[in-house]
């Protein structure tokens, strides 16, 4: 009897301990420890549930611990979505009915406030890629500043209409949520003739943006280190190789818990760096070159600036899961307003002040203009942030590729890359390493931060932020739209399409020219 009593007390204590640890994990994550490095927008998400777990904390720990308490199973440690050891990969239906998404959409899961949701959006659109905005002003002048404001307004609007596509009116006239993700919206627009085409297009766009974001991190790491220590006999390509060697262990990632612990510190460091740059620029306010800010544009290079500006605002890919996790979804519109207003003001001031300080000498990465005395310190912090941010888009890209190509049941193109025991097969690990090496090769042969950022923004950024939301809104809700909404949607689609095509062509031309130059060297 005593033994049985001790056993029950031990089980209760273990359950309480696991549950308290899980709640602490979720609390810290909701305070920002998880979401701080999601800045590309990238929305670093596949089917939005991946991003939800990154950003809202590992709530699955709580769900699993409560389920284990009822069913007698001990809770798994860590995020069960990524836990591979002994559990096996998630089945293809995990993100659908009865899976992860359905559990996360339950009534018992932790919710986030509008302020916490705003913190997540701010982290996505206020990342280190704002360092390229002064370069956009160099080629766009006052029109570049206008585009920073215009892009904020349009991205805020398209974020709202994308969320509107998640809802429909039921038989009782009530507005209910019938979709969970960007992929669901895309599939609904292409149904019934092509029920999965839209989702595949969105997934391809996500993969391109995620991989390009990884490439940008390698490029910026090599660029910053080379310009921080110009006297060392180490080229930018060599610094990129060193950075990739540090990043190679990302291929062995099973979950992102260890990486996410550093995310808040990375973001705080980035804000400190921005403040230092602005403080230095303000100290030289007497020498500001107001006469250099023109109304005319560089026709050849300004389209690249459009892609840079658009890429800095990409956040639409994770908005559906974010809105679904808010305590009061009605506050979503207000949250989008103040986050994008703040982003617009901060980005505009940062870009203008930095350009006024260095004028025509403004470089692709603005920190390269700083004096050598402080440049090295600032750049080392930025390199550390870039290296710690790399695993998030890399892991998200790997998850999307694995699910769509290797784990999609009978529709998978290749055999499952995981064994029956849940361990990653050797050839699957080789493919992961190959993806890391691919980002290195791209960074070596095209080491141009602004060109790559402009290309990504024009191709996937404009598509995910401008074209697809307006098209989906018209397709799903056109019968209920007011005339001005139809006008806005059509205008955004047309303008976004023109800017996207123009920016893509000019960025691609620049990349081809740069590739030829590097090949000749």
From TrEMBL:
Region of interest (Disordered), ranges: 65-100
One GO BP annotation of this record: neurotransmitter transport
Membrane-related topology note: Multi-pass membrane protein
Record-level Gene Ontology MF annotations: gamma-aminobutyric acid:proton antiporter activity; glycine transmembrane transporter activity; L-amino acid transmembrane transporter activity
Alphabetically ordered keywords of this record: Cell projection, Cytoplasmic vesicle, Membrane, Neurotransmitter transport, Synapse, Transmembrane, Transmembrane helix, Transport
Coiled-coil annotated spans: none
Domain Amino acid transporter transmembrane: 111-507
Any one GO cellular component localisation term in the record: presynapse
Location (main, coarse): membrane
Catalytic activity: 4-aminobutanoate(out) + n H(+)(in) = 4-aminobutanoate(in) + n H(+)(out); glycine(out) + n H(+)(in) = glycine(in) + n H(+)(out); beta-alanine(out) + n H(+)(in) = beta-alanine(in) + n H(+)(out)
Claim: Amino-acid biosynthesis is one of the keywords in the record: no
Transmembrane segments: 143-167, 207-226, 262-282, 302-322, 334-356, 376-401, 429-446, 452-474, 486-505
Localization in the cell: Cytoplasmic vesicle membrane; Presynapse
Matches recorded under InterPro entries: AA_transpt_TM (IPR013057)
Family: Belongs to the amino acid/polyamine transporter 2 family.
The name this protein goes by in its record: Vesicular inhibitory amino acid transporter
């Amino acid at each position: 009897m005593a033994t049985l009593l001790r056993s029950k007390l031990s089980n209760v204590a273990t359950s309480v301990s696991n549950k308290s640890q899980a709640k602490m994990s979720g609390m810290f994550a909701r305070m920002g420890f998880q979401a701080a490095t999601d800045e590309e927008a990238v929305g670093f998400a596949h089917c939005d549930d991946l991003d939800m777990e990154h950003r809202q904390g590992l709530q699955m720990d709580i769900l699993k611990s409560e389920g284990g308490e009822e069913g007698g199973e001990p809770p798994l440690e860590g995020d069960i979505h990524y836990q591979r050891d002994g559990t096996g990969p998630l089945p293809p239906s995990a993100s659908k009915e009865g899976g992860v998404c359905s559990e996360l959409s339950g009534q018992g899961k932790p919710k986030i406030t509008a302020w916490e949701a705003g913190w997540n959006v701010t982290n996505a659109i206020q990342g280190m890629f704002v360092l390229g905005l002064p370069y956009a002003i160099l080629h766009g002048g006052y029109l570049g500043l206008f585009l920073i404001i215009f892009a904020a307004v349009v991205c805020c609007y398209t974020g709202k209409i994308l969320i509107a596509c998640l809802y429909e009116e039921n038989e009782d006239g009530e507005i209910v949520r019938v979709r969970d993700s960007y992929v669901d919206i895309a599939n609904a627009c292409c149904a019934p003739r092509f029920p999965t085409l839209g989702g595949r297009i969105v997934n391809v766009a996500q993969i391109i943006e995620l991989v390009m974001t990884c490439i940008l991190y390698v490029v910026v790491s090599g660029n910053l280190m080379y310009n921080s220590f110009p006297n060392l006999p180490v080229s930018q390509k060599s610094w990129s190789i060193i950075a990739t060697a540090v990043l190679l262990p990302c291929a062995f990632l099973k979950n992102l818990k260890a990486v996410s612990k550093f995310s808040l510190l990375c973001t705080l460091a980035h804000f400190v760096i921005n403040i230092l740059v602005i403080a230095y620029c303000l100290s030289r306010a007497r020498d500001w070159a107001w006469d250099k800010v023109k109304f005319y544009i560089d026709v050849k290079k300004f389209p690249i600036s459009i892609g840079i500006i658009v890429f800095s605002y990409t956040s639409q890919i994770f908005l559906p899961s974010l809105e679904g996790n808010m305590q009061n979804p009605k506050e979503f519109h207000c949250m989008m307003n103040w986050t994008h207003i703040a982003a617009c003001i901060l980005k505009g001031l940062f870009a203008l002040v930095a350009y006024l300080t260095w004028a025509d000498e403004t470089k692709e990465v603005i920190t390269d203009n700083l004096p050598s005395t402080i440049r090295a310190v600032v750049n080392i912090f930025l390199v550390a942030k870039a290296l710690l941010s790399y695993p998030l888009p890399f892991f998200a890209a790997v998850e999307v590729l694995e699910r769509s190509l290797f784990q999609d049941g009978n529709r998978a193109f290749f055999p499952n890359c995981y064994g029956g025991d849940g361990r990653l097969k050797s050839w699957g690990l080789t493919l992961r390493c190959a993806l890391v090496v691919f980002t290195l090769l791209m960074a070596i042969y095209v080491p141009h931060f602004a060109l790559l950022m402009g290309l990504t923004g024009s191709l996937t950024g404009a598509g995910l932020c401008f074209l697809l939301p307006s098209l989906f809104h018209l397709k799903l809700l056109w019968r209920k739209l007011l005339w001005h909404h139809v006008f806005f949607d059509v205008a955004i689609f047309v303008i976004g399409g023109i800017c996207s095509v123009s920016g893509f062509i000019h960025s691609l031309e620049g990349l081809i020219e740069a590739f030829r130059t590097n090949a000749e060297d």
